[in-house]
Write a structure and sequence with these properties.
338 residues, alpha+beta, Porin, twelve-stranded antiparallel β-barrel, 13 strands
């Protein structure tokens, strides 16, 4: 019985064991190893370095030199209107001779040389070659007083061009019904020494007081900064007396026509001259204040005050002659030019 059972079960048991231990179909075969990674196709090749910034394609080449400046070493002319280049030496201005005036004028062929010469002469005359004249009366006034009323004048005449002129000056004072107290006239050559000043030289003749004197004169006249009109002169008489005079004035404009003018004059003497009544040092001074109204530029009546004073020995000579040392007057007058 037991044998029959085993015999029946044997085929099943044998099949199960066979299934449990199925032989490997590749057993005994040499199988190639499984590749771990794909091989680098460039393995063993020397690869060029990764480029950084772009390399100079001309590196190592000898480049030709830049072409030379064709103007190197040449003195190039300055462009029109450009300021001249400064060098170590200071440029000198005004030494070059003036260019000669042209002689071939195109207008001569149309209007004729004679007609154009006349036109050119007029042009030169109107641009600095003209001769002008002017008569200026700065002071022409009456000075009322308790006794005889006084009067005074001061003015000048000019004739010439912009540089050279003839100047004739005159001034004086006196009293109505009496003889002149002071009177003089000057004839001067005046030459411009700058835009605002003239150098003057000539003669001065005194008619009063007596005895008369003739003086050689040299001085300066002009317009100082801030519009002060100034004048200074030195006198040498035919007797050897030396004196000097300084004057100044200023126009203070309240309006275009109403003008206040302060005016000062100072006289100095180098020595005593008893016959003329003057002493050494500061001899006398005059101060005026005149308010004028310009009806026209050429004509202006005025009213003001005038003060005179003598100093030092001149005052002593005046007292000895019975005269006052100082004098204050109201003045009425006119200022004009033509």
């Amino acid at each position: 019985m037991s044998r029959l059972v085993l015999a029946a079960l044997a085929p099943a048991l044998i099949g199960t064991a066979a299934m449990a231990q199925t032989p490997d179909p590749h057993a005994g075969h040499a199988m190639p190893a499984k590749p771990a990674q794909a091989a680098d196709p460039h393995a063993g090749h020397t690869m060029p370095a990764k480029p950084g910034p772009a390399s100079d394609p001309h590196a190592g080449h000898a480049m030709p030199a830049a072409p030379a400046d064709p103007h190197a070493g040449h003195a190039m002319p300055a462009s029109p209107g450009a300021a001249p280049a400064m060098t170590g030496a200071q440029l000198t201005v005004g030494d070059a001779p003036a260019p000669q005036p042209p002689t071939d004028h195109l207008a001569d062929a149309v209007y004729g040389r004679t007609s154009m010469d006349r036109a050119r002469d007029v042009l030169r005359l109107e641009h600095g070659g003209a001769r002008l004249s002017k008569t200026m009366i700065d002071v022409l006034e009456v000075r009322p007083d308790k006794g005889p009323d006084g009067y005074a004048w001061e003015g000048e005449f000019r004739y010439g061009g912009d540089v050279n002129r003839l100047v004739v000056k005159s001034e004086g004072e006196g009293a109505f019904g009496e003889h002149l107290e002071e009177a003089e006239i000057q004839a001067l050559y005046s030459r411009a020494i700058g835009p605002n000043f003239d150098l003057q030289a000539g003669v001065r003749q005194d008619f009063q007081p007596r005895p008369r004197r003739t003086y050689a004169t040299v001085g300066v006249e002009g317009l100082a900064p801030y519009w002060f009109e100034v004048e200074g002169a030195l006198f040498l008489s035919n007797k050897g007396d030396v004196s000097a005079r300084f004057e100044g004035s200023y126009d203070l404009r309240f309006t275009q026509r109403l003008i206040l003018e302060p005016r000062v004059e100072v006289n100095l003497e180098a020595q005593d001259v008893p016959e003329l009544g003057v002493g050494a040092g500061l001899s006398d001074a005059e101060v005026g204040l005149r308010l004028r109204y310009e009806i026209r530029r050429e004509f202006a009546p005025y009213v003001g005050v005038h003060y005179e004073r003598k100093f030092g020995d001149t005052a002593d000579f005046a007292r000895a002659a019975g005269e006052d040392r100082d004098d204050l007057r109201v003045v009425l007058g006119v200022r004009a030019w033509f």
